[in-house]
Write a structure and sequence with these properties.
With 403 residues, the protein is α/β, with parallel strands linked by helices. It has 3 domains: 117 residues, no CATH class; 56 residues, Sun protein, domain 3 (Alpha-Beta Plaits); 189 residues, Rossmann fold (3-Layer(aba) Sandwich). The chain is 46% helix and 17% strand. It starts with a helix and ends with a strand. The protein binds S-adenosylmethionine. The site of S-adenosylmethionine has 16 residues, from helix 13. It comes from Salinimicrobium gaetbulicola.
Length: 403
């Protein structure tokens, strides 16, 4: 593989923003890719994938390169040199890249790979937490799976098309996909491609959504004509799926504390042809109180650590802090108690997270069931999805019924 100066420099700039200025990898990469209109799809995937790789393996590569935060430009080039060397790519003789002894890099890699926190590249505190929550063996497997590059999965928008028709449309645009057993609306890309550029996307025939995430809306057992509330709707990944399962019939209230996310939801809903969504920003507790006792179905896709989606969001390893973990658990507990009151008698509630930690998942549900607010609910079923078992995101979902 030949290394192109402008692509490597763009990657190093992106890494500087992520590591030194706290930028979010997805946003920084999206901005970087806008820098040069002449970049083709290969150039763009070089920048995106190399940046994600170095973010993913930050601790391991820093240890090998003997560099520390805050990273000087010279140090960022060192990290890049480690990345290239470990992939067998010949380093160019640019002045920014010092001659790096390949044998030394590989030797250090072999030595550090014996220790999990370096091999899987995680901060000490997170490694300790993972072991405490899942046990040594399961954490090791899960962490390894979460360091793999995530596959690209689409969810067919059944409001507008069928999976078979979508597959043909994409094929016409040069994109090959395959079905996934057990996931009725999902298609997996055989090769990575920028699906957002396709006519099929512009026409609202699909959304990009991980296979595990596609299970959540199904778990809620919605039916056309119901009154459903998606309490932590964000930009609407699951809201849009719920709308499709409800066949656009009934009422789907989508709330979130961030109005800008709901704006994005509205845009996506228009593209998807979903007409039964009523977005409501939670500006005060009144917005939720007004909904008490009114819904057949309630989804709480709770804010969480996001540890189950590390494969698509590897910078969370470095951005998460122990204090955040404590606070988010309190938020989850409060949200469950408050938002469960939206469910009417005989109605159902799904509590879901994209975390693999029992303390954010089954332990929260158990605590809720023992609380005053949870007394009238019973647990119907729950599913713990591990990335090491499915190859998709780590997720948790529980279906509760109100007596
Ligand atoms: C896991 S994300 C939701 C993802 C979204 N459901 C989807 O499928 O695309 C959690 C969401 O909860 C929102 N949130 C955080 N605290 C909240 C609260 N107290 N009430 C409602 N939403 C909240 C966040 O803004 C975020 O959008």
């Amino acid at each position: 593989m030949r290394l192109y100066r402008n692509l490597v420099f763009a990657t190093v700039d992106a890494l500087g923003e992520i590591f030194n200025e706290g930028g979010y990898a997805d946003k920084v990469i999206a901005k970087t890719l806008k820098r040069d209109k002449r970049w083709g799809s290969r150039d763009r995937s070089f920048i995106a994938e190399t940046t994600y790789d170095i973010v993913r393996w930050k601790r391991l590569y820093s240890e090998i390169a003997e560099v520390k935060a805050p990273y000087s430009r010279e140090n960022l080039f060192r990290l890049f040199a480690v990345w290239a060397t470990l992939r067998g790519i010949e380093l160019p003789d640019w002045k920014q890249i010092e001659p790096t002894p390949t044998r030394r890099i590989k030797g250090k890699f072999d030595e550090l790979s014996k220790i999990r926190k370096y091999r899987e590249s995680v901060p000490d505190w997170l490694d300790e937490l993972g072991v405490k929550e899942l046990g040594e063996e399961l954490w090791e497997k899960e962490l390894h799976a979460l360091n793999e590059q995530a596959p690209v999965i689409l969810r067919t928008n059944t409001i507008k098309t069928t999976k078979e028709k979508l597959q043909k449309e994409l094929q016409k645009e040069g994109i090959e996909t395959e079905s996934i057993a057990g996931y009725p609306d999902a298609l997996r890309l055989k090769e990575r491609a920028n699906v957002f550029k396709t006519e099929a996307f512009k026409n609202g025939f699909f959304e990009v959504q991980d296979a595990s995430s596609q299970k959540v809306a199904e778990f809620l057992e919605v039916e056309p004509g119901m009154r459903v509330v998606d309490t932590c709707a964000g930009a609407g990944g699951k809201t849009l799926h719920l709308a499709a399962l409800m066949e656009n019939k009934g009422q789907l209230v989508a709330t979130d504390i961030y109005g800008n996310k709901l704006k994005e939801l509205k845009r996506r809903a228009r593209r998807a042809g979903a007409h039964n969504i009523d977005p409501r920003e939670i500006e005060s507790s009144k917005v939720i109180k007004k909904l008490y006792g009114s819904a057949d179905r309630v989804l709480i896709d709770a804010p969480c650590s996001g540890l189950g989606v590390l494969s698509r969001n590897p910078d969370a390893k470095w951005k998460l802090q122990p204090e955040f973990m404590e606070n988010i658990k309190k938020t989850q507990e409060e949200i469950l108690k408050q938002y469960s009151r939206i469910v009417k008698d005989g109605g159902k509630l799904v509590y879901a997270t994209c975390s693999v930690l029992p303390s954010e998942n089954q332990e929260q549900v158990q605590k809720f069931l023992k609380s005053e607010e949870g007394k009238s609910f019973s647990l119907k079923k729950e599913e713990k999805i591990l990335s090491s078992e499915t190859g998709f995101d780590g997720f948790y979902m529980a279906l509760l019924e109100k007596k």
